[in-house]
Every structure is written in C-alpha cells, then in structure tokens.
Amino acid sequence: MELPINGRGYDLASPDGKLVEWVPLEGGNFRGRIEIVDISPHFVGFDLPKEKLQFNIKSTLAQLGVEGRLLSLDIQRGKRKAILEVDCFSVGAYGKKMLHLLGQGADIGKLFAPDERRKVRDPYYLDRMFGRSDRWGNPLLSLGGLQGSDQLFLEKVEGRCVAFLSLLRGVVHYEPAVEGFLPTLAKGLKKELPMRELLSLNQYIDHEEPRYLQKGELLLVKTPPLHVRTVFARVAEELLPPGYHHTSASVLQPDTQASGDIYEFYGESEREIADIPLEFFTLEPYREYVFFADRDQLQSSLEKPETLFKAFSTAPPPEEDQAAVFIAKGSQLVSLTGADWVTAKAHLHDFPGFNLATRQAMMVERYIEQQASYPFLYAIEKGIVTSQGVLLSRYFPSPLMKRMYLSDLVQRSIKGIYFQYPSRTNGVFFSQEDRAFLHDLLVFGIPVFWVDEASQKILRYVSKEGRESGMFVPLDKVDTYLKATLFGVYGSNLISYGFEDFLLELFRGVEEMRKDFSHPLFGPETPIALVTGGGPGVMELGNKVAKTLGILSCANIIDFQTKGKNIVNEQRQNPFVEAKMTYRLDRLVERQAEFNLDFPLFTIGGIGTDFEFYLEQVRRKVGSQRLTPILLLGEVSYWEEKITHNFQSNLKNGTIKGSEWISNCYFVVDTPQKALDVYHRFFSGELLVGPGGPIYEKGFCF
Question: How confident is the model at residue 260, as a pLDDT?
Fold first, then answer.
C-alpha cells in the first residue's frame, strides 16, 4: 500500500547530492562528480528532457561565491538516483578558499525540474495567498509580514506571473572572522548540518553602499524576510539588468520562512539593481495550501455524474479490494489513472471483544492502518497534505476510522467523501454503525456522496432538521427534501392491483391543494415527498406515482435476503426510487422508526404492514410524532377485520385507558375525493385529531 504522495520532499526537487569526486582544474576551478540517491519516484525530472533540468547549488556555498554549472547528467528512474558532473568556480576570495576546502561527502546541491506546465501564469493564484497562514500560523506568501508587503509587486510578464521584490538599501559583507569559520562550514556540509544560519552570523550590511556590480566580485543584496509556502520561486534570469547573473542557487523552496532574503550576483554592469524578479512553479496539488472554495474547476466537475463515474472506473481491480484517492484539483479528477489510487486487500476477521480491551485496541489499530484511505488521512495529520480536497473511496469508510475523520486537521481538509458502494460484504446496505457515522460526518460538516450505479446519479446524505437520521438524495433534490412534508405509503409487497389510479388521483389532488393553504406543513412553498419501503407491490406503485407527478420519490430499503433461509420473500428495489437509505435486516425496527412520516397512508398488507401500522400508532400515542390524520385506503370491511377487534378488546379491558382518542387519528377512505376531504379539513383546522377529540368504536373514523 504505497502512498502516491512524496512526504520527504517536493516533486520538482531532488534531495541534496554528495560529492563522490572532487578534481582540481586549471585556473583554480574544480570538477565535481555528484551522486544523488533515494530520489522520490514522483520526481518530475524523470519525465523531463535532461537538458531541461537545473543544478541548484547550495545557498550556503553560493553566498560565499561558489558557483556550479551542470556539464552532464545521468538520471536513472529504476535506481532512483542521478549522477551529475558539475564545474565549480569561484567569485571572490572567499569562494576560492571554499573550493579548496570542499571534498568527498559534502552536500553541494540538488536538481530542480522547472516543468513549464507547472509555471504560475496568473497573478491571482498568488494574490489570494496574501493574509493567509498555514496551520502553524506561518504566512503562506509574504514579504516582510503576514499581510504581504507593498514591496512585493505581482505582474504578468511574457505569459507568466512575476514578482518583483524590492531590495533593502545597502550591500552585505563578511566580517574577517568568516575566514576561520570556513573549515567548520566544510565539515558541516559533510554532516548534513544546517550551516546557512551560522554563516549569517558572520555577515553585516552596509546600508549606505550602492548596489553596483563589479567584475570578479560577488554582490550580496537583501530583501525583507520572504515567506514562501505554496510555490517554488526561481530568479527570472532573463529579467535581470544587463550584465547581472544570479548564482545557480536561484530556487527558493516552499519551506522558505523568513530566510529567502539574500541574493548573490556576479558579472559586470554599470547599473544599480533595484529589485529581484521571481517566477513561480506550483507544487503538487495536495501541497498547495489551496482552499476548496478556490477550486472552481474541481467544484464544477464534482457536480457532473459522468466525471465521477469515469473517475471511479480508473480504480484498479479487483472490485473486492479497497481503493481510495485524495483529490485537491480539478485537473486531477479528470485525469485519474490507476496509479493514483491507493489499494488495500480487505481482510475480514472478528475482533476479540471488549472484554479483552488491550488486544481489541491493538487489532482495531491494525485494521485502521490497513484501510486504503489511511495513508491520506495520516498525511493530512502530519502536514504532508496541506490543500483541502475530497476523498474518493470505493467503499464507504469503516466507522472504526471515525477518530481520524473527525480529527481537527482531517475535518478541516476533507470537503467531501465520495463512495461507490456502502459495504464490501453487504452490498448496498448500511449497518447501524455506518448510519451513526454518516450522521457524525454531517454534524462535523463533511459532506458524503454516493456515486450510485443504480440511479446513475450522485446522491448526497442529508438529514432534516432535528432528526438523527437522513437519506441519500439527488443533488438537484436536496433542497426539496429538506423542506418537504413527508407522505408515506405502506402496503403489501405482493399485491399491487387496485391502488395505482387511487394514488395517482389522490396525490395529484394533494399537489393542487397545496396552492390554497399556508399551513406549517402544507403550502405553496412547502414541497411534498413520498416515502415507501422501496420494494415491489404497493411500494412500487407509490414510488411510480411520485415520479409520474414530479414528487420526490424516497425509500427506506431493507435487506430481506436471508442467506439461504426461506423465511421472507426477497424484495427487489423498485426502479422508481430517487432518494434512499438502506438497512440490514437486524435493524428492522430502527429502519421503521426512521420513516419520520408526517402523513402515513396504509393500503392492503400483511404482517409487515401490520407491524408498521402499530409502530405509527405507538409513536402518536407516546408523542414522538406530531398528531396528523392517518389514511386507511380501501373498504371499511377490510379495516374492520384488521383493527376493530383489537381496538375493542383493548377498550373493554381498559388497557388503553386515557388513550382511547388514538382512534380519531385513523380515517378509512374508499375514494381519492374522501381522502382529499380529510386533508382539507385538517389543514383548515376543522378536523380534531388527538386528545379531546371523539372516540370511534371501530378504532377509526369513516
């Protein structure tokens, strides 16, 4: 499980290389053979022509007047190494002395890959970074302070963004004591010690000296402290005054913090230099410190189902394996390949249980580390991933990873989770723990989206206000669902005849009636949605009628597959469902409790419908659901057989004393017109439902 993210460096720069040979040449120059090892496999330089790569000498050496020019390069992707031949010469007396002190084992410089595709073109890209900081409070881009500086000018020059850094007055010189420091510095370069800060202790600035370039001498100049976190910066050599040359230490890395403030020039010119022109190269998308709100292309791409389905199609097989990828840029999403995904074999095993707490904790931790999304979350926590983005995952993340997803840094960075399948072992059906995790993600502001093959749509998990359950809803119907009053149809999965015309006429009338009311649950600005169990029979009729009339068609779908035990009829999902939540069979009661219907309707049905009938009755009796009329569609004789004996038995035995009023919640209607009349009287305030209302001896009103 290799993370396609380079956590040890940046993909435009190699590690520092060491001298393996150091040969003196005529005139006091030296030729060095440099070996760079352990180059990241993501180094862009592997894919660029060798002549495009730049040797960048260490700034410490450049500030002393040591310059290096690349003669030849042998870069080997398979071995992740590069061999460079570099001619080094000196500018000034200190550079000459330093050349003689260098030798085998010294860190001397690195490779930079100036990929033209990564060059910053628009000044806006950098403008938006001013005033922003990373998670530790360091400016993302500034010259002299967090808010930037009026001494930093961004312009578009020859098709790219160039910053002109104003120079401070004066010229930098060395105190005489630096000569005794040079041997120590040479030893420090062999030990990979940070020597630049120590070198600066021997520097001082003459503020009155003009910044003129003299042949054979090094000109050191300063700018205000520069912070660069979001890009590579490079001195734009061709924009310097004629006769000026910057040393090959011309690249500022993205970890520059108040240290990119000294520049080294040599050559010959009669003009005084006033500013430093810098051009910029973008980092890997996930390291740009870019906010999701700034990613217009990514946001628009995520709204296109075809783009997301195509992106998921690049996930490596087999489908049983986990696969995940973090996306921080629109171009990433549309150009995904299998190599961009992290895959993981899913190993199913039982945990020892809470009575073995130590072993349980250890196994859970191992399980978390085996998840395909783990490397991305870990990289976010460690500061390797700094941009905000979205996570694509073949399967909905395991609830055991809740701790990581809801941690402060991850929660701020992940602006969406997109998945294809709810469960590897249970297909489209969520567990109780999954649904609890979904609600937690919603509360913490991490949107979750189902890239649903069944509907070929993107569904977003949303929950109506005040409820701890929700549904996956098509993107263009989210607002409708959140505002909607929920009607629901309960009935047999075996019988579908006789109710389609009834329901069609009833809900056509309900939609028309909405125009005439301003009830909190019913009016022109309050859409309605229809909820069923999502199966065949009457449920299918209800969802079909909803789609026909343009009403949001919803379902709470449960897994009735009994693993070979012929106990219940297996119920296929009907094709008319738009918004849905799914449940496993062991959570049948929880599923029913989460219908949250404002206006239930019952048709002919068997044991399942009876169960739903009594649950709705209990919810009204205990006050967990508002008191609204429940319609019983069909003949009085059918509902007498279903309800009356039970109600009269309870009444006779006094087991519903004080709750006899429950009978006035039920209305048997045998025509759509009668059903509409019940609703009309209720929304008009003429129908008394609940305590204080009439008691009907049949257990319902007709």
Answer: 64
